[in-house]
C-alpha cells in the first residue's frame, strides 16, 4: 500500500474514482504479504497483489467495483478456481471503490506517512459488521467508526499494539468487540516500520535477546567488534549482524524514540564509549547488563567522560525486570518484560494484585 500511495493520491486529489485491491490474509505459499495493494482506474494500474498470478482477474473486478467485496484466489480442497496461484497458496483480497467521498481520511493518512507519523487503518472485511467500514488510528487519536463503540475501543487497543511493532494483519472479534468471539474480521494495516533493537555484544545472552526481540516484532541488529563472534550463523534470528566498534556503529545510525539499545558487552572498553553515544541519542530505551558493582563502576567512568546526571538517569542497569532470571533465555524474558512495561506504562506488578482496566488508557 505504501508503494501505491503517491499515485492514488494524485487520483484522489483530482476527485477521481478508482478501485483498490488489498491483500488482507494469506495461506500457504502466497506470493505477496498482507498489505500488498493494487489500484485500478480505467486502463491505469499501479501496484501488485500476486506478482502476476491473479492480476488480470483482480484488475477486472477492481475496474467495475461498486461496493466492497472480499475475494479469495487459490485452490480449495474440492476443486481449483478458474483463476489460481501457481505457488499453490491462497490469498484473500479486499476490493473496494475509493473516492474523496468514500475515503475522506486518505489525505490525512498520506500526510502522516510522508511525515513518518505512525498510523493504522482498520477495515471490516467479513462478518456481521458493515463491509468496508473503516477506522483510522494514530497513537494519540482516531477517526471514523466501525459501527459499534465497544468494537472501536477493542480495535484501537489492538491496532496501537500492532502499530508499535509495525505489524499488519487480521484480527477477529464479536460483533460488539468481544475478544472471545471470531465472527467479525477486521484487517489492520500499519504504516510504520518495525522499531529497531540494537544488541551490542556477541554473547549467548545476546542471542537470546535477539531471538525474543524478533519475536516481539523488532528489527534486530547484533553488533560486535570481534569478527570471530559476530557471525550470522551464531545469530540466525537477527536481521543484521555487524562487525564494527559498537560506539562507531551507533554514531553512524539515525536513532528515534522507538529504538531499543541493549548493551551486553561486559567490557568497559566497549560499553563505556558506547553508552556515551547511546545516552545522548533519542533512543526510547538504553539498558546495560552487569552486576550492581559493575553498574556503579560504569557510572563513575561515564561521569568522568562528562555525562550529566540527567543523561545517566536514562540508563536501565542492571537491565530488565526483577524476575529472578538466571539463564540467557530467562534474562531475555526479563528484558522484554521491561520493554513492554515501559511501552504501555504497566506497573510491573502481578495482575492479580491490581484492579480496574487491564489495558490502560492510551
TrEMBL record:
Residues 11-73, 115-174 form the XdhC- CoxI domain. Residues 197-339 form the XdhC Rossmann domain. PANTHER family: ALDEHYDE OXIDOREDUCTASE MOLYBDENUM COFACTOR ASSEMBLY PROTEIN, MOLYBDENUM COFACTOR INSERTION CHAPERONE PAOD. InterPro entries: MoCofactor_Util/Proc (IPR052698), XdhC_CoxI (IPR003777), XdhC_Rossmann_dom (IPR027051). This is Xanthine dehydrogenase accessory factor. It comes from the Bacteria.
Amino acid at each position: 500500500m505504501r508503494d501505491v500511495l503517491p499515485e492514488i493520491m494524485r487520483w484522489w486529489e483530482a476527485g477521481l474514482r478508482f478501485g483498490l485491491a488489498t491483500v488482507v490474509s494469506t495461506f500457504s505459499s502466497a506470493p505477496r504479504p498482507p498489505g500488498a495493494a493494487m489500484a485500478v482506474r480505467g486502463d491505469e494500474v499501479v501496484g501488485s497483489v500476486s506478482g502476476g498470478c491473479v492480476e488480470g482477474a483482480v484488475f477486472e473486478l477492481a475496474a467495475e467495483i461498486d461496493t466492497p467485496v472480499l475475494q479469495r484466489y487459490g485452490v480449495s480442497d474440492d476443486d481449483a478456481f478458474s483463476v489460481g496461484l501457481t505457488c499453490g497458496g491462497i490469498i484473500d483480497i479486499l476490493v473496494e471503490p475509493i473516492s474523496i467521498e468514500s475515503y475522506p481520511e486518505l489525505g490525512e493518512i498520506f500526510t502522516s506517512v510522508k511525515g513518518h507519523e505512525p498510523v493504522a487503518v482498520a477495515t471490516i472485511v467479513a462478518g456481521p459488521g458493515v463491509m468496508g467500514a473503516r477506522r483510522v488510528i494514530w497513537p494519540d487519536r482516531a477517526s471514523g467508526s466501525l459501527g459499534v463503540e465497544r468494537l472501536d475501543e477493542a480495535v484501537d487497543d489492538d491496532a496501537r499494539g500492532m502499530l508499535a511493532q509495525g505489524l499488519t494483519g487480521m484480527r477477529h472479534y464479536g460483533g460488539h468487540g468481544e475478544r472471545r468471539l471470531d465472527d467479525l474480521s477486521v484487517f489492520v494495516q500499519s504504516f510504520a516500520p518495525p522499531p529497531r533493537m540494537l544488541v551490542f555484544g556477541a554473547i549467548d545472552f545476546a542471542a537470546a535477546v535477539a531471538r525474543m526481540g524478533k519475536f516481539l516484532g523488532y528489527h534486530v541488529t547484533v553488533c560486535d567488534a570481534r569478527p570471530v563472534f559476530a557471525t550470522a550463523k551464531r545469530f540466525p534470528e537477527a536481521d543484521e549482524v555487524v562487525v564494527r566498534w559498537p560506539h562507531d556503529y551507533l554514531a553512524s545510525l539515525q536513532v528515534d524514540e522507538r529504538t531499543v539499545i541493549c548493551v551486553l558487552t561486559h567490557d568497559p572498553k566497549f560499553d563505556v564509549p558506547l553508552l556515551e553515544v547511546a545516552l545522548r541519542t533519542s533512543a526510547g530505551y538504553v539498558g546495560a547488563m552487569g552486576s550492581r558493582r559493575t553498574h556503579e563502576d560504569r557510572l563513575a567512568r561515564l561521569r568522568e567522560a562528562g555525562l550529566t546526571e540527567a543523561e545517566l538517569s536514562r540508563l536501565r542497569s542492571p537491565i530488565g525486570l526483577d524476575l529472578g532470571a538466571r539463564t540467557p533465555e530467562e534474562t531475555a524474558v526479563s528484558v522484554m518484560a521491561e520493554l513492554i512495561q515501559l511501552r504501555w506504562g504497566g506497573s510491573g506488578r502481578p495482575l492479580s494484585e491490581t484492579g480496574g482496566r487491564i489495558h490502560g488508557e492510551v
